[in-house]
Amino acid sequence: xxxxxxxxxxxxxxxxxxxxxxxxxxxxxxxxxxxxxxxxxxxxxxxxxxxxxxxxxxxxxxxxxxxxxxxxxxxxxxxxxxxxxxxxxxxxxxxxxxxxxxxxxxxxxxxxxxxxxxxxxxxxxxxxxxxxxxxxxxxxxxxxxxxxxxxxxxxxxxxxxxxxxxxxxxxxxxxxxxxxxxxxxxxxxxxxxxxxxxxxxxxxxxxxxxxxxxxxxxxxxxxxxxxxxxxxxxxxxxxxxxxxxxxxxxxxxxxxxxxxxxxxxxxxxxxxxxxxxxxxxxxxxxxxxxxxxxxxxxxxxxxxxxxxxxxxxxxxxxxxxxxxxxxxxxxxxxxxxxxxxxxxxxxxxxxxxxxxxxxxxxxxxxxxxxxxxxxxxxxxxxxx
Length: 384
Ligand SMILES: Cc1cc2nc3c(=O)[nH]c(=O)nc-3n(C[C@H](O)[C@H](O)[C@H](O)COP(=O)(O)OP(=O)(O)OC[C@H]3O[C@@H](n4cnc5c(N)ncnc54)[C@H](O)[C@@H]3O)c2cc1C
Known about the structure:
Elements: H1 7-24, H2 28-34, H3 39-47, H4 66-79, H5 81-88, H6 94-100, H7 103-114, E1 120-123, E2 139-143, E3 146-157, E4 164-170, E5 182-188, E6 194-198, E7 210-221, E8 225-226, H8 232-237, H9 240-268, E9 270-271, E10 274-275, H10 280-309, H11 314-340, H12 350-358, H13 368-380
Parallel strand pairs: 1-4
Antiparallel strand pairs: 2-3, 3-7, 4-5, 5-8, 6-7, 9-10
The chain binds flavin-adenine dinucleotide (FAD).
């Protein structure tokens, strides 16, 4: 058993850390306050090869493994989760194209995304279909050689900035099987009949663009179907282990960012004539924050390893990692604010933002409750 990163992985970590310190941290508060998508930072991230780096080399990516993706994600989120999500979501939905797309779809979309010339979005959730993905009601009907799409999607990351969406639609409602009858369809962002409304006032990750999409007779050519008709939900399920591991890495990043900032502050701040880090109550907080972050990281690495090696216990591990790392992010960020006292309550200090940002990791890509359901199902072998 090897508990060391390779030299290449260490180098990746150092390079992304440097990028995050120089290009993300100095502007993070500004984008958070303005709720603005960081186009300039995205251009620099493209130059660094940070956009959709899991895409294979032949389509312009780097072909990073899940483990390398976890290392990179931790660094981005330790600096700032809002901008970190913009960078790591640029290729949302790319997995569907990589795994099930036609050669034409891959060659058209993926190189644009990795070059920073296009952004993708993955449109699954709807106003009435959140945790229960099988209640998706957006309809795609065949009319000649086109699909005609009607319905709405909710909470879509990159909703107003994306050039391409992978949209989960119901195409075959007559199929009498809960998981069949859905298809994934590629929809260009500039199609007639597609309306996108930005959602503002989010608790956290405010640099990230989130929107509601409305489809009113949106027409796309039949060639935009991704993979097999009626199998969209089953196709989608194959990526959850990977995407949940990535959210676990986000949680590790937020926890580490908060724990490091708390340590720094505790050593600087003096009360009662001594550094607050001299008080045992604060020492214990710091010890617990760093211990839990380390535990979350290794569970996440273990899950990433399982993704890369297609291990049998992968689904349980991915949900364990996602649940534990997101809970750790929320708890550590909470303690980091506590260590800062009043200073942690205002946005002069990053912990205020990390505290707000941490919460999303317990909600998207399947809530905490859904992750526990999955772990229990894997243990007990029964349904949801
Ligand atoms: C900022 C943001 C970005 C997002 N980005 C995207 C995106 O890019 N693409 C996309 O498709 N979606 C996206 N989402 C949607 C996200 O995945 C959903 O919000 C999430 O899956 C939960 O669905 P819901 O909000 O409808 O909550 P609900 O499903 O209504 O859940 C409400 C509560 O009930 C609980 N609950 C529901 N079912 C069960 C059950 N069976 N057992 C126990 N408890 C249960 C939940 O855990 C939760 O606590 C995003 C959401 C946010 C907030």
